[in-house]
Amino acid sequence: MKEFFKKIGRVIVSFLILTYCRIVYRVKIIGKENIPQEGTLLFCGNHRTYLDPPLIIVTAGRYMRFLAKEELRKNPLFAFLVFLYDGIYVKRDSKDITSLKTALKTLKDGKCVGLFPEGTRNGLEKNDGKIKNGAAYMALKTNAKVIPIGIVGPAKPFTKNAIIYGKPLDFSEYAARMKEDKGVEDQVSEIIKEEIVKLANTEI
């Protein structure tokens, strides 16, 4: 019964969020046809504002569990959204790997997970262009295809903004040599980053 009401809640809230984004932020959705309707997927995008996670969730057309920082528990609105969409809390700068295990299990169960490889808002700038290897590790361990996402625009009301979905990235060949080559995760992370940056720099 609880899940039934959560599903209804997701439909209603998703409609409201999407309508708000379309009207206030004039968000255009590009490349949605690149998202397979079946199979395990890992959604990876650039992170600009707090609006990014719900924007991905409501436009992708696939149920996904998004990784969210633990601090969002303190914000009633975001805590509600994390609860409603079955988000996975992450304790940043901690050795606790509970969130990683949960994300891996979700992917191994054939479902989808969303995250920002940057690790934080505007992380590429803060980390000198580097991203964390979490997305690469999960993709390699579960054979999930990666959907790169570019979120474009100033994220200000009544300006042009867009969310662009790239074609799925298949890293199965890299996974086969993961045990022998310790640099595979770095290589996969770099490919994911390049695809995200390319989409994020698209003119709209």
Q: What structural keywords apply?
A:
seven-stranded mixed sheet; globular; alpha/beta; 204 residues
How many strands, which pairing sense, and closed or not: the largest β-sheet?
A: 7 strands, mixed
Low-confidence stretches: none
Number of helices: 8
Helical fraction: 40-55%
Measured between the Cα atoms of the first and last residue, the distance is 43 Å
Mean pLDDT: 91
Order of strands in the sheet with most strands = 1-7-6-2-5-3-4
Bin the strand percentage.
Answer: 15-25%
Write the element-wise H/E pattern from the N-terminal end onward. Answer: HEEHEHEHEHHEEHH
**What's the shape?**
globular
Radius of gyration: 16 Å
Structural class: alpha/beta
Number of E-type strands: 7
